[in-house]
Amino acid sequence: FGLKDAKEAITGLVVFIALSSRLLPSLLRIQGAVLQIKGSSEATKNFLAEFDEAKDSSVSLRSQLPRSESESEFKGTINLVNISARHLGETSFELKNISLTIEEGEFLAIVGPSGSGKTTLVDVMLGIVTPTSGNSAISGVQPAHAMRMWPEKIRYVPQDVQLISGSVLENIIWPDLSVHRSATEIQQLLQVVELDEWINSLDNGLSTRINSLGTNVSGGQKQRIGIARALYASPRILFLD
After folding, report:
1. Strands of the chain, DSSP E
2. pLDDT digits 0-9 by tens, 79-110
3. Is the peptide bond before 175 cis (omega within 30 degrees of 0)?
4. For 194-216, what is the HEC assignment?
5. CA distance between the termini of the chain
């Protein structure tokens, strides 16, 4: 208003206000993101502390085991002896007196209608559900201990595979970042899970980005990525739900 006439000054003021209104939503989103980061920081610290504690416990457990239960002695066997169990929160259904042995190299399919206990039985094998009676073991030790001792030996593919925000390759190798496979081995793995043709059709191949929700891939592709992820570490025991 001091340097120009009223018409130019008012025009400039209107343009300024219009541009400011366009910026305001972005500024509010930035403010919301900052608040969310601050709110999540304590939870992140707690998670990292628990992760370190679990890692230390795993190392301690390995050192306390006799030599026959060391990593070199891992056997891909599962034993259930007189297992009775209920699934989490379930009171109206119970598995009773299940005895089962799965030897290394065997393939076993558990079939039955919905509600017949398939998931409960698998969760007992994995140590997710503690049986009300009986004993469950992987390679001669309790499943929860086996999962901590030999995490790369046992893999599980759930019905709903969770992807990370990253490339196709990063989703396949996660979380086995320390395991290295040659390009030939990765290509063979893609052929096994029948992802090779789809990946070859992508402009960026294995470098193609996938969002964290997996909305830019189909349900079948998402499931095959999960299977490839499970097979990447060459597990000795593989659960497929």
Report:
1. 78-85, 95-102, 133-138, 154-157, 166-167, 209-210, 237-240
2. 999 988 876 666 667 888 889 999 998 999 98
3. yes
4. CCHHHHHHCCCHHHCEECCCCCC
5. 72
